[in-house]
Design brief:
It is a single chain. The chain has four helices and two strands, in the order H-H-H-E-E-H. By secondary structure, the chain is of the alpha+beta class. The chain has one domain: Winged helix-like DNA-binding domain superfamily/Winged helix DNA-binding domain (Arc Repressor Mutant, subunit A), CATH 1.10.10.10. A hairpin with a 2-residue loop joins strand 1 and strand 2. It is globular and about 40 Å long.
Length: 86
């Protein structure tokens, strides 16, 4: 991306990138993919995104994992998904 997205425009971009990956992504990686934005701004946006998900009662949350960020299912949902596999 040539132009830096606004803070509000950054959140859906981050959501898409995090949903599309199978591993945690570091703020520096996300900044490199998006371009024209500092990792510190990415971290602030990820904090905001995490707050939004925590407040809205989704079945998943944004976790800091291995120095990166990844969506994870909440504990209760993992238990349900395991029992349905049997």
């Amino acid at each position: 991306m040539k132009n830096s997205p606004s803070h509000a425009g950054l959140l859906p971009i981050l959501e898409c990138l995090l949903f599309a990956t199978d591993r945690p992504l570091k703020a520096e990686e996300l900044a490199g993919i998006i371009g024209a934005i500092k990792p510190s701004a990415i971290k602030k946006a990820l904090e905001k995104l995490s707050e939004q998900y925590n407040a809205s009662g989704h079945g998943f949350y944004l976790a800091e994992v291995a120095g990166g960020y990844q969506f994870r299912t909440i504990r209760d949902i993992r238990i349900l998904s395991r029992s349905s596999e049997r």
